[in-house]
Write a structure and sequence with these properties.
The structure holds three protein chains of three kinds.
Chain A lengths: L1 E5 H11 L4 E4 L6 H12 L6 E4 L3 H13 L4 E5 L1 H6 L1 H9 L5 E6 L13 H4 L7 E4 L3 H16 L7 E6 L7 E5 L3 H7 L16 E2 L8 H30 L7 E4 L6 E5 L4 H13 L4 E6 L1 E3 L3 H8 L4 E6 L9 H11 L7 E5 L9 H13 L8 E3 L8
Helix pairs in contact in A: 1-2, 1-7, 3-5, 7-9, 10-13
Chain B lengths: L8 E2 L15 E5 L9 H5 L5 E4 L2 E4 L9 H5 L5 E5 L3
Antiparallel strand pairs in B: 2-5, 3-4
Chain C lengths: L1 H4 L14 H12 L3 E5 L3 H6 L11 E3 L5 H14 L5 E7 H7 L1 H10 L3 E7 L25 E2 L2 E2 L8 H7 L4 E6 L3 H13 L4 E6 L3 H5 L5 H10 L6 E4 L2 E5 L7 H5 L14 H19 L5
Parallel strand pairs in C: 1-2, 1-3, 3-4, 4-8, 7-8
Antiparallel strand pairs in C: 5-6, 7-9, 9-10
Helix pairs in contact in C: 2-8, 4-6
The chains are: A alpha/beta, B alpha+beta, C alpha/beta.
């Protein structure tokens, strides 16, 4: 069924199809429409889930620690300051290996307070042990939701997943989307049946404290699960394609990389604009391609090396900055190449901070700089859309 | 053998492998003739290690940390703490 | 035989003479095995679950310091969804209850989950080395409210946590003491039978933080009650339903037995401070009608 709906409604519909037992969330712009729609679905009896209205994002995710330990499929959604407030629980959920799925409606982190889109929030949480998948458009964010549960609940993975979608740009846009079919999702996503739950008949202890003699092994197992997820993400994407007919690439996707001299690497909704900009550049004889990072954690080192091995230079465009260094994806990408002997220049751009538009012109400027960087980068890292006149 | 598994869980009551009796300096000695079987020592013992065995309250020295709460609370002063020779 | 029956096994690492394990055993004796326990970070958590061991013979979950009430809310919501009659308990210390967990406690209270919240109240952050909490009483020496030339210890009285629970319309709110096990178990049973949230605050002396004579753990808690400094009461649906009557003893009997009050008997101003503590006890005695006729 194809319908024009708001992005948030589409996500709520996708969550409903996953049959969560419990939704626990705290309102924060621009996530609100997702949880409002879910509340309405529960109120109307369309969605047979429990909905807990909690006192904070911190409690929202904490309640899901309890429900997940009971073996329940658990969902939340948040953004920005809310995600930051969850920070301590993020580590806890991943360390306890709870397959919770959370939609992050990406938004800037204050101060100054800003409710608009960038990706500082989730990129800042990259080390918390969650899998992070980034959607280009509403349909992809929707389709990633059942894929995220399938991945999270896989007995080899048991790792929480954030489905990241740009706030407002995707959550509040009205787009035609293909609705998920509930029965098909049921086939695709089997019921969650964890081996260990809280049950007086088998009274195990969950969350014992680990001293230096075992803590490293807990961390290693998390790292191992993320490494295994590298393979599963693609397998699950292909399984999804078989059932639903839609495929967005596995860990990464590419556009106009065949014969490209330079590449832009990015994540999220800016990809649509980048594709338009690249079409224009190719028409002008400037051969710049695109690599879209779908999975930021686990970081697809091998897939990125393979896809970028033939270009002479690379520009990263991302909506975050590691204040005091460069930015997350830029650094990670450079690190992915260091031991390969590939000396392709990589330059980084932060753009679209706090909701500033990234225009075709901006992207073409980055593309030109990428092409020029083949002779050696002019600057390693820049603010792409800086208004120097107001400084 | 020690195994670390994903998320980690622990079997119930498994601290019993650790014999905290090794912490003890003083050991409770029960004068069974004075004991009135009020069971206060059993109730108050933080280790839960004083138990009735064949009608007599006996501290389980595998776990007794020698805190002397039992001696202090015994209304008949039937328990004395004695320096343990090891 | 108690060792086999108890739902909290020996071998835990609580200090010799700690009251907390006794509190836990008394609580679990009263509830029986059909419970799920959530504990916040604290003495109880670290002493009872050193991986790969656990003292718990009931299902038990630890997440973080400040979220036990929220975690328990998630557990209880799913139990209800599964139509199970298992009782959910939170057992945590005063730091997590009075201070850092207040937000999630407030949420749990207000939503009215069927959860029994048990606070073992040792009146400071003992696990980290005896720092002041919101539960620390007036003039207590802690490592962050030390007594000294310019200080008589904690400058503020204990936070009235039961009143906060009552203000949330928690249907059953009670205080208890490890020194009165029959009373304690009765209150736990009552809370367990109730459908809805309950809050139990249990006086639990800490031998390390309060510094008293070895073996006198229970005696100290008894004195806290008998001086009127730790009134034992039950509030049912916001109304005072019952109190433990006492023949009030002077607060000095309680204070002089503990190192955390020792400075009051030496420092200038100590006498006035003791009088102020007596006034707190007298007020409790009058407010709750504690004095035996």
């Amino acid at each position: 069924m194809r319908k024009v709906v708001e992005g948030s409604y589409a996500i709520a519909q996708a969550v409903k199809c996953c049959d969560p037992d419990i939704i626990s969330a705290y309102p924060i712009t621009p996530q609100t429409h997702i949880v409002e729609n879910l509340s309405q679905m529960v109120a109307d009896g369309e969605l047979k889930a429990e909905f807990i209205t909690v006192d904070s994002e911190f409690s929202a995710l904490s309640a899901l620690v309890g429900s997940s330990a009971m073996g329940a499929r658990s969902y939340s959604s948040t953004t920005s300051q809310g995600l930051a407030l969850m920070y301590e629980v993020l580590y806890n959920v991943s360390g306890l290996r709870m397959p919770i799925v959370m939609t992050v409606a990406n938004r800037a982190m204050g101060a100054p307070l800003n409710i608009w889109n960038d990706q500082q929030d989730s990129i800042g949480a990259r080390d918390c042990g969650w899998i992070q998948l980034y959607a280009e458009n509403v349909q992809e964010a929707m389709d990633l939701t059942p894929q995220a549960y399938k991945l999270a609940e896989d007995p080899d993975i048991l790792t929480p997943v954030m489905v990241c979608m740009d706030g407002f740009i995707l959550t509040h846009v009205y787009e035609p989307v293909e609705f998920l079919d509930h029965d098909k999702v049921k086939q695709f996503l089997p019921p969650f049946k964890p081996k260990i739950t809280l049950d007086p008949a088998h009274p195990v202890t969950i969350g014992a404290f680990a001293d230096p003699s075992t803590f490293t092994e807990y961390r290693y197992l998390q790292q191992d699960a993320q490494n295994k997820a590298l393979g599963k993400i693609d397998t699950i994407a292909k399984e999804f394609k078989e059932t639903f007919g839609r495929y967005y690439g596995g860990l990464i996707d590419t556009y106009r990389m065949e014969g490209a001299d330079a590449a832009i690497v990015t994540l999220g909704s800016v990809i649509g604009t980048i594709k338009d900009a690249l079409d224009e550049m190719w028409a002008e004889g400037k051969k710049v391609g695109l690599v879209k990072v779908r999975s930021y954690r686990p970081f697809p080192v091998k897939a990125l090396r393979d896809s970028l091995k033939d270009v002479s230079s690379i520009a990263v465009i991302e909506k975050d900055v590691s204040i005091g260094n460069e930015a997350g994806l830029t650094t990670d990408l450079k690190a992915a190449f260091y031991n390969t002997g590939m000396k392709t220049p990589i330059i980084g751009f932060t753009a679209g901070l706090g909701g500033r538009d990234i225009t075709l012109k901006d992207i073409k400027k980055a593309g030109d700089k990428a092409l020029a960087a083949a002779k050696g980068p002019e600057a390693e890292f820049e603010f792409l859309t800086l208004r120097k006149e107001i400084l | 053998m020690l195994k670390v598994i994903a998320g980690g869980y622990v079997e119930p009551g498994s601290t019993q492998v650790t014999k905290t009796g090794a912490w003890r300096t003083f050991v409770p000695v029960v004068d069974q003739k004075r004991c009135s079987k009020c069971s206060l020592c059993e109730i108050y013992c933080p280790e839960g290690c004083i138990r009735m065995v064949e009608g007599l309250f006996i501290p389980d020295l595998d776990y007794c940390k020698g805190c002397s709460i039992c001696a202090h609370e015994c209304p008949r002063k039937a328990i004395t703490m004695v320096l343990e020779e090891k | 035989m108690i060792q086999e029956q108890s739902l909290f096994a020996p071998g835990h690492r609580a200090c010799a003479g700690c009251s907390m394990p006794t509190v836990v055993r008394l609580v679990l004796d009263a509830t029986g095995p059909n419970v799920i326990v959530v504990s916040p970070t604290g003495c109880l958590e670290v002493t009872s679950t050193p991986f790969p061991e656990s003292a718990w013979k009931v299902p038990w979950l630890h997440s973080l310091f400040e979220n036990a009430a929220a975690v328990a809310s998630g557990v209880e919501t799913i139990l209800k969804r599964q139509c199970k009659d298992t009782k959910v308990l939170v057992i945590g210390g005063d730091g997590s209850t009075f201070d850092i967990g207040m937000g999630s406690n407030s949420g749990m209270f207000e939503r009215g989950h069927d959860i029994m919240y048990v606070c073992y109240d040792n009146e400071a952050y003992m696990n980290t080395g005896v720092q002041r909490s919101g539960s620390t009483p007036f003039c207590v020496h802690t490592t962050t409210t030390p007594s000294g030339e310019q200080s008589l210890g904690n400058p503020k009285p204990k936070k009235d946590m039961p009143a906060i629970a009552i203000a949330h319309h928690v249907p059953y709110v009670a205080t208890a003491s490890v020194a009165f096990p029959v009373d304690l178990r009765r209150k736990v049973k009552r809370a367990a039978e109730l459908r809805g949230t309950s809050y139990l605050q249990i006086n639990a002396p800490c031998i390390t933080g309060w510094t008293f004579e070895t073996g006198s753990t229970i005696e100290i808690s008894r004195l806290a009650v008998e001086t009127g400094l730790y009134p034992l009461f039950e509030f049912v649906n916001g109304k005072l339903a019952d109190v433990k009557k006492i023949r009030p003893r002077p607060v000095t009997d309680y204070l002089k037995a503990q190192g955390r009050y020792r400075h009051l008997f030496k420092a200038p101003g100590g006498k006035e401070a003791i009088a102020a503590i007596q006034a707190i006890a007298d007020e409790n005695i009058a407010n709750y009608g504690l004095a035996q006729e």
